[in-house]
């Protein structure tokens, strides 16, 4: 029986306001981000969600804390849902870091990881999901690497296509994870 996965990005951060590529740095939500997190909770609390999984990076964890404050839905933190580790590029201007993003599809950022390594890391999380949540509907709060992993590993979209496209934010993506 497939597991329904709803993916939402972490809410808008102070680094988003400044055009910074946060990467593995914690980041903090901006005032706008806190409002968006509240809206996420209003949108998803009664959406049949059995559990919320979030990256352990502060901006994602804060999104989940605000969205599901006072809710009985369990919120579980998992480091495997983190953004790509840009290594020495964590915290640099996003436009500069991502100018040649395709160079880092298979080659690691200096001191960090490649996009493919980040997707494989999220894939290890996906392997574990059916162990406890098979047939349930879960929410995953993460980052670009998290969504690319879902698009690639569940929907079969080539990473080469994902890395060349704009992110295209929206209110949630839906996936069906088939059990092995």
TrEMBL record:
<keyword id="KW-0413">Isomerase</keyword>
<comment type="similarity">
    <text>Belongs to the phosphoglycerate mutase family. BPG-dependent PGAM subfamily.</text>
</comment>
<dbReference type="Pfam" id="PF00300">
    <property type="entry name" value="His_Phos_1"/>
</dbReference>
<dbReference type="InterPro" id="IPR013078">
    <property type="entry name" value="His_Pase_superF_clade-1"/>
</dbReference>
<dbReference type="InterPro" id="IPR005952">
    <property type="entry name" value="Phosphogly_mut1"/>
</dbReference>
<dbReference type="InterPro" id="IPR029033">
    <property type="entry name" value="His_PPase_superfam"/>
</dbReference>
<keyword id="KW-0324">Glycolysis</keyword>
<protein>
    <recommendedName>
        <fullName>phosphoglycerate mutase (2,3-diphosphoglycerate-dependent)</fullName>
        <ecNumber>5.4.2.11</ecNumber>
    </recommendedName>
</protein>
């Amino acid at each position: 029986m497939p597991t329904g996965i709803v993916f939402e990005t972490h809410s808008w951060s102070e680094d988003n306001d400044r055009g910074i590529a946060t990467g593995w740095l914690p980041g903090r939500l901006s005032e706008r981000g806190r409002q968006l997190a509240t809206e996420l909770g209003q949108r998803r609390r009664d959406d049949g969600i059995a559990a919320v999984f979030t990256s352990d990076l502060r901006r994602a964890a804060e999104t989940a804390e605000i969205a599901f404050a006072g809710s009985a839905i369990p919120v579980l933190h998992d480091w495997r849902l983190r953004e790509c580790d840009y290594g020495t590029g964590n915290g640099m201007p996003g436009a500069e870091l991502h100018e040649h993003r395709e160079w880092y599809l298979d080659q690691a950022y200096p001191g960090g990881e490649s996009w493919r390594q980040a997707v494989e890391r999220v894939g290890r999380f996906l392997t574990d999901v059916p162990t406890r949540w098979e047939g349930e509907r879960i929410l995953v709060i993460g980052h670009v690497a998290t969504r690319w992993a879902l698009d690639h590993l569940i929907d079969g979209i080539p990473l080469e296509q994902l890395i060349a496209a704009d992110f295209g934010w929206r209110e949630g993506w839906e996936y069906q994870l088939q059990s092995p």
